[in-house]
């Protein structure tokens, strides 16, 4: 009998049609995965941008509030300064309004009047470490001889440490104070003599009605701080800036002016607004304060509170599904009495930090 046997079949490859179908399916899957990854990347980018914006606003606002809470220690009844050769009693904090003119105009870098609607703020802030040190730059010294002119203070030993480039002091009876531009401190243990530029102004002191400085007044260092919105030269974007000040008349006729280049406090801050709360009738009720935009330097009884608002953005614009700037949502914000000009949306999400701070150093109940 003949036995039939089939030869083994040869391996069969993919047909051209099958190859084309597989390639098409792979292309679809890869395109979908790419689109999903790009969409996820945009979500992450936008989320990070919003978080970045929130952080910039919060950090700027908290820095301002920290300085505000320190301002005016020992100056609840005003600070005496020499302006154009004449003693003037001023608030230890004041500021211009972005919409104001004259004394109420806001200034920016180099005391140039602002044009973008943002406010500015001046603060007289004591050295945090003035207590607990003996006869050193930054220490609090006590007046031991009443009168005007150079101050004789208790100072055991020679003053230690280097004084700042433009040291300023206040002599305070913990109600009113006088701002002194220190020229030198001469030690003659157990006392020292503080010399200052305003010595030649007749009758200048923290209590003119008493005929000069009094025994027991404290003498301690302060800084004049100026906050405003300026342009950071490193990135061309707006930022919250701070400059150190000195007694002098600025372009708006106020008694302080910047004495050097400012530093960047926080980048990507485009607006800064301040409202000052006045307890005009001395009710002591924070809910009845009258808030106003801009405060003149001249002493204002009843200054009790400050509301600080800052608007910040992230570093880069947000993107939509077409990888374009989100044009419909991201616009400048209106804050306090400042309504920005109408401009095309730029993709920058804006975060607003607004908080009210009481001024503990200006309330008599805090003494």
UniProtKB/TrEMBL annotation:
<dbReference type="Pfam" id="PF07963">
    <property type="entry name" value="N_methyl"/>
</dbReference>
<dbReference type="InterPro" id="IPR012902">
    <property type="entry name" value="N_methyl_site"/>
</dbReference>
<dbReference type="GO" id="GO:0043683">
    <property type="term" value="P:type IV pilus assembly"/>
</dbReference>
<dbReference type="InterPro" id="IPR032092">
    <property type="entry name" value="PilW"/>
</dbReference>
<protein>
    <submittedName>
        <fullName>Prepilin-type N-terminal cleavage/methylation domain-containing protein</fullName>
    </submittedName>
</protein>
<dbReference type="Pfam" id="PF16074">
    <property type="entry name" value="PilW"/>
</dbReference>
């Amino acid at each position: 009998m003949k036995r039939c046997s089939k030869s083994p079949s040869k391996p069969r490859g993919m047909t051209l049609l099958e190859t084309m179908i597989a390639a098409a399916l792979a292309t679809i899957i890869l395109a979908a995965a790419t689109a999903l990854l790009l969409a996820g990347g945009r979500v992450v980018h936008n989320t990070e941008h919003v978080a970045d914006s929130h952080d910039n606003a919060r950090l700027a606002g908290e820095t301002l509030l920290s300085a505000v809470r320190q301002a005016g220690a020992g100056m609840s009844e005003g600070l005496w300064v020499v302006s154009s050769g004449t003693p003037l009693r001023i608030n230890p904090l004041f500021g211009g309004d972005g919409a104001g003119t004259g004394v109420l105009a806001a200034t920016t870098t180099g005391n140039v009047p602002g044009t973008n609607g943002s406010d500015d703020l001046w603060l007289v802030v004591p050295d945090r470490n003035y207590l607990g040190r003996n006869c050193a730059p930054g220490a609090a010294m006590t007046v031991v001889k009443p009168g005007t002119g150079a101050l004789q203070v208790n100072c055991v030993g020679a003053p230690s440490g280097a004084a700042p480039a433009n040291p300023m002091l206040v002599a305070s009876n913990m109600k009113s104070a006088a701002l002194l531009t220190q020229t030198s401190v001469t030690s003659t243990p157990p006392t020292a003599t503080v010399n200052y530029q305003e010595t030649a102004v007749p009758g200048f002191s923290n209590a003119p009605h008493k005929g000069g400085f009094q025994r027991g007044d404290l003498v301690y260092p302060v800084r004049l701080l100026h906050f405003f919105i300026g342009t950071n030269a490193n990135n061309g974007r707006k930022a919250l800036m701070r400059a150190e000040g000195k007694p002098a008349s600025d372009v708006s006729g106020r008694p302080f002016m910047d004495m050097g280049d400012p530093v960047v406090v926080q980048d990507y801050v485009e607006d800064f607004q301040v409202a000052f709360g006045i307890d005009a009738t001395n009710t002591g009720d924070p809910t009845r304060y009258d808030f106003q935009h801009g405060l003149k330097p001249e002493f204002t009884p009843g200054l009790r509170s400050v509301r600080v608002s800052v608007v910040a953005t992230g570093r880069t614009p947000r993107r939509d599904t077409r990888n374009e700037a989100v044009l419909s949502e991201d616009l400048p914000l209106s804050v306090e009495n400042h309504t920005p000009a109408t401009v095309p949306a730029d993709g920058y999400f804006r975060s607003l930090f607004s908080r009210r701070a009481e001024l503990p150093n200006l309330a008599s109940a805090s003494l």
